[in-house]
Amino acid sequence: xxxxxxxxxxxxxxxxxxxxxxxxxxxxxxxxxxxxxxxxxxxxxxxxxxxxxxxxxxxxxxxxxxxxxxxxxxxxxxxxxxxxxxxxxxxxxxxxxxxxxxxxxxxxxxxxxxxxxxxxxxxxxxxxxxxxxxxxxxxxxxxxxxxxxxxxxxxxxxxxxxxxxxxxxxxxxxxxx
Length: 177
Ligand SMILES: Cc1cc2nc3c(=O)[nH]c(=O)nc-3n(C[C@H](O)[C@H](O)[C@H](O)COP(=O)(O)O)c2cc1C
Prior knowledge:
Layout: H1 3-9, H2 23-33, E1 45-50, H3 53-62, H4 66-71, E2 76-83, H5 102-121, E3 125-129, H6 134-141, E4 147-156, H7 170-173
Antiparallel strand pairs: 1-2, 2-4, 3-4
Helix pairs in contact: 2-5
The site of flavin mononucleotide has 13 residues, from helix 4 and strand 3.
């Protein structure tokens, strides 16, 4: 797919068909995501990939509010996280500037955008879910306290064709000097 076609084809999908996502596909998608830039190339982004039906159902029904629980039904659940107090911090553990752990989150977002575009290119769809219970996810998947949990990405085969939501005018978001 051409870049424009790919970016416009990616939409948040909130209804998935009952079709398994394989580990091989997820590995290929994560490899593409790894091409993202990261602070000093440290790659502190992490992916906890819940693929089996039994574990997916356990996570889906316990770690989300009901609206997201319904939206990610049948999808693989990719819990994304990053190492805390690493990128954006100096040797003494002090934040290098005002963003602190925001830089780890920034790197994770860059990774996740490539993850979603690669998924789309491969015929899969995604939903970013920021509304999730991080501590329940941590307990269920054994995610260490040294990592901050970000969004959960639903990954699967779309069973709907969402419309493209409007975007703001360029002048609302960009200033030129
Ligand atoms: C950080 C972040 C968190 C989000 N959290 C949720 C969520 O919890 N549930 C949901 O249905 N959509 C969620 N979304 C999806 C947005 O609503 C969606 O991206 C936006 O409406 C634009 O639609 P599009 O993705 O189709 O372009 C989230 C998106 C982002 C980037």
